[in-house]
Amino acid sequence: MPVVEVEGLCKRYGGTVAVDDVSFTVDEGEIFGIIGPNGAGKTSIVECVEGLRRPDRGRISVLGLDPQRDRARLRQVLGAQLQKEALPEKLRVGEAIELYRSFYPDGADPDRLLEELGLAGKRDTAYDRLSGGQAQRLSVALALIGRPRVAVLDELTTGLDPQARQGTWELIEQIRDTGVTVLLVTHFMAEAQRLCDRIAVLDRGRLAALDTPGGLIARLDAPQRVRFRVAAPFDATLLAGLDGVGEVRTERGETVVTGTGNLLHTVSSALVRHGVVATETRLEHATLDDAFLALTGRGAREDGAVRPRGEREAG
What we know:
Elements: E1 4-13, E2 16-26, E3 31-35, H1 42-50, E4 57-62, H2 71-74, E5 78-80, H3 93-101, H4 110-116, H5 132-144, E6 150-154, H6 162-177, E7 181-185, H7 189-195, E8 198-203, E9 206-211, H8 213-218, E10 224-230, H9 237-240, E11 245-251, E12 254-259, H10 263-273, E13 278-284, H11 288-296
Parallel strand pairs: 3-7, 3-8, 5-6, 6-7
Antiparallel strand pairs: 1-2, 1-4, 8-9, 10-12, 10-13, 11-12
Helix pairs in contact: 5-6
């Protein structure tokens, strides 16, 4: 039986339809991603899964529990990451972890959890003195202190620098490796492509696609791109007629060749035959960004719907 089941979920805020007939399942041990532009309904869905919002229609089951009817039991098996502003500024890391540990009859060992998450040396540090990455790790620690079987992480790496984001990605993988099922909401396509086993793509409250990252990309049937620079001008028409080459254009001093087949070999061989010296040559394949744009027609940060007052920006 799936760990999480969502069937025909609908949620409205006044005249705004936030979630429109969305269904999916999450398997045990999976990192399941939910992606979509701002206002697509991502946060509304996970808040219904967490029992924080009541659906207008549809059915949700988490480990066989109804998030509304079995809310107290759900809190013992589901951990949710807090938003950054949820903790008092002067609350110390050790105080926060001990407080949250007291909510569970059989929670994790606080010292061991802080050690595993790289926060052992910050036990006496006030919350407002933590770096962005450390604050996110504390948020994850509080979500895991009850030893949940399911963890909901909503926009976990927003605002982090690249190094802190990379460290957080590794942390999420460690969480999954301990047997915890992860429901991950994100607008970073690179994050979803790296971490998620399967992804639900939302657009304007509806489920646009559900597949693995590779499956979503494969749907594009997208051509490859070879990019390179040359030291001296050359006649680009020498590439235009080659097998597999669809288009040759110049962008900001870079030559971009779009096509199919063994495109890199085709282009490189032709340049060598004609004595053209190419530098910074690279081959680009389609990415989850390309698939996302093809499915939704807009970027992940574009705000495509009016959010009701009080709803978090993540949508």
